[in-house]
DNA sequence: CTCTTCATGTGACGTTGTCATACGAACCAA
DNA sequence: TTGGTTCGTATGACAACGTCACATGAAGAG
């Protein structure tokens, strides 16, 4: 019924899911290898059969999170009835929504892939390429898509990051993150 | 010569400096209470005479880093011969320079002040007020300074953050962080 | 000079990441 | 079926860490 490799793959998936859930629920400090193993139904040492160390497990969580974003972007791209400007707006809003719903996972996604984490790097690169394609449809010049896309992506990330860190308060700046996103699109795109 | 309170204040300063140095040199993992105490010339338990826990020590490091940025902004503001636009440009470039020269400290400055860290919150608030004052001199409408300043600050932070995380590569986006900063000023301010 | 205060030093405890080792079930060859 | 191999998993152990309880010793007050 379940072969050995299937069981191992399922365990690996369960470990990544458990780590992601613990991260969402309790923040980075809650992601303990012992807790991850317990939630995945295995022991504390089991992760070492799938990941060299904790950092690689977290990289797998980041890769999974990026893949989910990429899948949503794929849906946006596949919907040919959508005007390019709407696609761009929804792609930005979608990423912002992830930053608000899963702030810890979002921070992990934008953290530095310090060592060699091919899966995470590939997932990030794919999503960036998708976003660049969406931007390229709005601004007709392909050579302008790169810089404009970078400005949009970095600015959006700054808005979400400062919002999540509590440094973007409406009392101080007289503006909300949503309004900043609208300003960004109006002035940049 | 050295009273007891002076010695205690010096020790506290030495602890914060040691933590900042260790953070700059070896990243967050290098900031151990034992290592901080050793570099400050005291034992591993000494920090608990000045800070309730490690988080408060790191908050003091963040506060000190923000104060240094604020002092540089004060110099910019005091130089009345500087055109407002140049002041704004230099304030943004100065913060970007900190993000590049001290990436770990920069990340700590923009991390969430999770609990009550009055010193850190005050230092952040002061710097934001200074930046808002600089922006207000460029855009004459005081009610526009808030949103515009927020857009500039968040976007700059996004550029620096993605640059430091290695996700803003010129190969992918066909643009550098410096060019993005110039685009930002040209299109926003 | 005595007593108090308080920063500091030290031992100890629980937790964590990680490694070495042992176990056991799934696979393969006969 | 039978025997041996592979490999994911479980467990014991260790060093390092944050933190606490307690001891120490010198500075300041009377």
From TrEMBL, chains A, B:
Coiled-coil ranges (or none): none
Superkingdom per UniProt: Bacteria
Record-linked Pfam families: TetR_C_33, TetR_N
Alphabetized UniProt keyword annotations: DNA-binding, Transcription, Transcription regulation
DNA-binding region per UniProt: 32-51
Domain named HTH tetR-type: residues: 9-69
InterPro entries: Homeodomain-like_sf, HTH-type_TetR-like_transc_reg, HTH_TetR, MT1864/Rv1816-like_C, Tet_transcr_reg_TetR-rel_C_sf
Name the UniProt record assigns to this protein: TetR family transcriptional regulator
Organism expressing this protein natively: Paractinoplanes durhamensis
Lineage: Bacteria, Bacillati, Actinomycetota, Actinomycetes, Micromonosporales
